[in-house]
């Protein structure tokens, strides 16, 4: 009994109510609402016919061909600050959940969703400001769609796959690489330092490779579980067919036995009728002989 109690005490507790970790996850998702509004405003200023382009720094001096570069710089650093706060909440809620050994279904579902929303929006934001490359962002989005689609299909088959270390390392590298880009590229000259900008984006490229490696591992595990489930279903079908055949054979056998019983009863009835007829004939013969004498 003591061992069972110790195991139950050590096991993570699943709580139905929202705890501190879940409220941090909700906060991280809510932070993306002003982030999206600011990102949209920045994109509108960049695409507007006011000189085009974004902004850069020459030391502490703000430079750029866009006439709204001051507004763009305010929007930029506000969004970067929101992303930093979102990443801090991601670290804190994970640390708190591990420390208190509390696990919730809400956290299992919405924590990775909040992480993907935050990192994807930050990548789109940096691509709008031309600080990273749009194909990288598209490849990240395609990877997430494939993994999430496989996960949703596997969930219908009751196939569950635990997170692997590839995915966790990917999340850390991508988050840190986005911050490196955010704090370094604005001080690079837009036309002259294109090679340096590529070098700064190398950590994000490494995160992209890890993302696809972890995504392929996830998809293979999901497909393996789905294939195993389908094989189990296919094995059940012959059993059903054999049981159906056995039932049919039993029914045919019972029909034959009933036919045999019916035929035997008819034979008995026929014999009784013949015996009675013979008795009647014998009685009629005796009566005629008596009358003759």
Automatic annotation (TrEMBL):
Keyword flag Transmembrane helix: yes
Family classification: Belongs to the CDP-alcohol phosphatidyltransferase class-I family.
TM region positions: 21-48, 74-96, 117-142, 169-188, 200-219
Primary localization: membrane
EC number: 2.7.8.5
Topology in membrane: Multi-pass membrane protein
Name of the protein described by the UniProt record: CDP-diacylglycerol--glycerol-3-phosphate 3-phosphatidyltransferase
EC class name: transferase
Record key words, sorted: Lipid biosynthesis, Lipid metabolism, Membrane, Phospholipid biosynthesis, Phospholipid metabolism, Transferase, Transmembrane, Transmembrane helix
Pfam assignment, any one: CDP-OH_P_transf
Gene Ontology molecular functions: CDP-diacylglycerol-glycerol-3-phosphate 3-phosphatidyltransferase activity
Compositional bias annotation for Polar residues: 241-251
Region spans: Disordered: 237-267
Organism: Metamycoplasma equirhinis
UniProt subcellular location: Membrane
């Amino acid at each position: 009994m003591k061992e069972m109690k110790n195991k139950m005490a050590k096991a993570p507790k699943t709580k139905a109510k929202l705890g501190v970790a879940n409220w941090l996850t909700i906060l991280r998702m809510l932070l993306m609402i002003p982030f999206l509004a600011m990102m949209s405003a920045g994109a509108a200023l960049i695409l507007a016919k006011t000189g085009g382009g974004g902004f850069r720094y020459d030391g502490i001096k703000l430079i750029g061909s866009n006439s709204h570069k001051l507004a763009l710089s305010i929007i930029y650093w506000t969004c970067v600050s929101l992303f930093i706060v979102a990443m801090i909440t991601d670290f804190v809620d994970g640390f708190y959940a591990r420390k208190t050994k509390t696990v919730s279904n809400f956290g299992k579902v919405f924590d990775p969703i909040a992480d993907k929303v935050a990192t994807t929006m930050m990548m789109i934001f940096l691509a709008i400001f031309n600080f990273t490359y749009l194909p990288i962002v598209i490849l990240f989005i395609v990877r997430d769609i494939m993994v999430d689609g496989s996960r949703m299909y596997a969930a219908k088959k009751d196939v569950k796959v635990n997170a692997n270390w590839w995915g966790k390392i990917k999340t850390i590298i991508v988050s840190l690489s986005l911050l490196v880009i955010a704090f370094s590229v604005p001080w690079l000259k837009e036309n002259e330092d294109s090679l340096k900008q590529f070098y700064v984006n190398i950590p994000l490229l490494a995160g992209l490779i890890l993302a696809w490696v972890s995504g392929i591992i996830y998809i293979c595990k999901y497909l393996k579980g789905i294939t195993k489930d389908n094989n189990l279903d296919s094995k059940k079908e012959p059993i059903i067919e054999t049981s159906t055949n056995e039932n049919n054979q039993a029914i045919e056998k019972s029909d034959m036995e009933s036919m045999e019983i019916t035929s035997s009863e008819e034979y008995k009835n026929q014999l009784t009728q013949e015996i009675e007829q013979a008795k009647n004939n014998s009685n009629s013969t005796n009566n005629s002989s008596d009358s003759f004498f």
